[in-house]
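agent> Task received from the user: take the single chain below, predict its 3D structure, and emit C-alpha cells. No templates, no multimer pairing.
agent> Plan: (1) validate residues, (2) run structure prediction, (3) serialize to C-alpha cells, (4) report one or two observations.
agent> Step 1 OK, no nonstandard residues flagged.
tool_call: predict_structure(input=
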Amino acid sequence: MILEQFRNIKTQSRLYSRNCFTISVEGLWLDVGGEETNNKMRGILKGGVTMKKSLFFTLLLSIIFIFSSCVLLNDSNTNTGTNIDWTEDEYQNVKLIYTAYNEGASLSISELEELALTHAGANNVMSLYSFFKGEITLEQHFTKAMGDILKPTDIRIRNYIGNVIENSSYGSDDESDYQNNWLINYFDNEIPVDNTDAPPSINFNPDLVSKYNTKVIELKPRIYEILDHYMKDGNNFDRWYDFYANSQMVDSTVYPAIFDSTETLSTTIKDEYAEYLARIAVTYTDSNISFTQNISNSNPWVYGQNINFNDIPPELLLAVFFQESNFVPFSYRAEVTEIIINEEPFEYIFGLSFGLAHILIDSDKIYISSEHIDIGDYGLVDEKTSDIGDRDFSLISYIYFGNTNKYDAENVFRSWDLLTVRGSTMYALTYLSLIYNKIMTLK
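)
tool_result: status=success, residues=443
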C-alpha cells in the first residue's frame, strides 16, 4: 500500500552551520597538493592563524517550479510505514526533504521552504523522483535539470578510495547473483565490513527481493536508461570511470589505474547494475527495518527517535542517490573552508563524502589527512566545541548504531562502510527518515 500511494519522503542534510563554513556542493576543485606545497604551508602556519567567516563558493543555480502552497500534514506516528497521502503537496515535500538533506536537518521549516524556492539540487531531485515514478521521460527531466555536474579532480582522494577498494575485504558475497559483475562486486559487501566490536543487533543486510519483483521490473528500465546516458563516452559516469580506470600523472608522478583493463562498462555490466540498484532500493524501503535512538540528543535528532526505513519510497532514495553521485559508487565530494594565515587566504578540506549517498565524514578521520596539509583542520578547530565536528556519519553512527564516541570512535561502523551500496543505503535512509519525521511533525 505504501508503494502504491506516496510513501513518506525526506532529505538528509549537513549538520554544520551554513554561516560558518564554505561548502563545495557540486564538485571538488582543489588543486593537488604536492610535497612542495605542503612544506610551504607548514612554513606559513608558523605565523598567526585567525578564522575567517567563510564564503559559499559554489552557487546553486536557481530555477523554480512553483507549486501550490503547502497543506499542513500530521504525522501518523506509526512504526509500520506511512499512511499519509501527500496528494498535490507531494513534490513540494520532496523539495523540502532534499533541501534539508543538502543544507542541514537543523534548519527550521520556514528556512527550508525559503531555500527550496531557489535550490537547484532540490529541483533536480523533484524531477528525478518524477522520472523514476514514470511520470516524465528522461528527455523531459533534462529540460528541468539545473546545476553543475560533480567532476573528479583530486588524485589524492581517488587513490585513497582505490586503496580502500583494493586492500579491504571488499567483494561480493558468495551467494550474489552478480559474481561476474566487477562494478557490483567491489561495492556489494555486507555491513559493517570491518568492525572491532560486537555486530549490531539489527540485521542491516536483508536478502534482496527477487529480480522478478513487480516494483523492480518497473524501476529497472528507468535506471538503465539514465545509466546508459551517463555512461556514454564523455558523459559524467564515463569521466569518473576513466579517472579510475586509467593511470594519472600529477607533478611528474604517475599513479597507476585502480580498475583492471578487463573491468569495462559493458552492456551486461550496466544492465545488471541497474537491476541491482532497483533491488537494493525496493528491498530496503520495504524491509520493515526500524529502530530507536541509543543516545538522546537535541535538534534535529529529537525528531528521529524512531527510524523506519519504510517511510521512504524507493523512487526518492534513487533520486537522492543520483543527485548526490550520478549512481557512481566511487565518486566523492569535498567540503572546503577558508582561514587567513599571515593575511593570506588558505582553503582546506574539512569534510569528505563518497559512495552513492555522499554522507559527510570528518576529513581528519582519514589517514591521508596526516600526509597533506590542506586535508583536515590540523588542530585549528576544536571539534568537540564547534559545529565542524558534527559530521553526519559520526553522529548517525553514535546516536543509532553503537559507535561509542561521536567524534572519533569507529568500533562498530567505519567510514569505509559508506563505500558499500548497503552502507550508503542504510545511512541515507536513516537520515531521510529523521528528516521526514521532523517535517511531518512541524509542518
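agent> Step 4: summary for the user.
Strands lie at 49-51, 248-250, 253-255, 290-292, 306-308, 332-341, 344-354, 359-362.
agent> Done.
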